[in-house]
TrEMBL record:
This is Putative transcriptional regulator. Residues 1-40 form the Transposase IS30-like HTH domain. Residues 50-60 have a biased composition (Polar residues). GO terms for molecular function: DNA-binding transcription factor activity; transposase activity.
């Protein structure tokens, strides 16, 4: 990778571009960008000049690059998972917190641990975990001895998140059906809303039934 490409990576990170978008602009695989950033300070500490110098020094020492078939470094793997979550619509800070919990040994972290590990403010962690709890991805436990909250990702989190998402979609479906009734089913807008509401209602029902049917897989 050239020094100019590294400068473009830094510029892209500075304006909040995703790894996928940076990779597209450079004509590189997304995994190449995520590995480059992960081994050179991460998204918050990437410096193109330092990254280039480190690469030159490794080459001079004859240090081989990680083998293509030898697996993805853990830092790069985390960044790829975060990138997938961001592309699905999750805020990046929230995705970082979620992935750190997912990849922890027992799926448990305190707010202080998350703040220290991710090197972010307590307020940022608070906003992220509140979102994750509301969406069912994480549950909150109280440690009565130390009087602190512990955030937990357990196996049932996936079931809870599906149910909560389905419930929210069902509310939208019912709102669309109610609006269709109000506007009149004989009007173009009413007919459109009725179709949307019915579609979402049926799909949500199927998804909830499927989650209930396969929940035992998480036990």
């Amino acid at each position: 990778m050239t020094q100019q490409e590294r400068q473009r990576i830094a510029a892209g990170l500075a304006v909040g571009l995703s790894y996928a978008e940076i990779a597209r602009r450079l004509g590189r695989p997304t995994s190449t960008i995520s590995r480059e950033v992960a081994r050179n300070g991460g998204p918050g500490g990437y410096r193109p000049q330092q990254a280039h110098q480190a690469t030159v020094q490794r080459a001079q020492r004859g240090t081989p690059a990680p083998p293509r078939g030898g697996g993805v470094p853990s830092g790069a793997m985390e960044e790829e998972i975060i990138e997938l979550a961001v592309r699905s619509g999750m805020p990046r800070m929230t995705a970082r917190v979620h992935v750190d919990l997912l990849l922890s040994e027992d799926g448990r972290r305190t707010a202080a641990e998350l703040t220290r590990r991710l090197k972010v403010s307590p307020a940022s962690v608070s906003v992220a975990v509140n979102f994750l709890v509301q969406q069912g991805y994480v549950r909150r436990e109280r440690d009565p001895l130390r009087r602190r909250d512990i955030y937990v990702v357990d196996d049932d989190a996936w079931y809870r998140s599906v149910v909560i998402s389905s419930r929210q979609t069902l509310e939208s479906a019912r709102a669309a059906l109610a609006a269709a009734e109000t506007l009149g089913l004989d009007t173009p807008v009413g007919q459109r809303l009725a179709k949307v509401g019915t579609f979402l209602e049926r799909v949500t029902g199927d998804l909830t039934e499927s989650a209930d049917r396969w929940r035992d897989l998480l036990a």
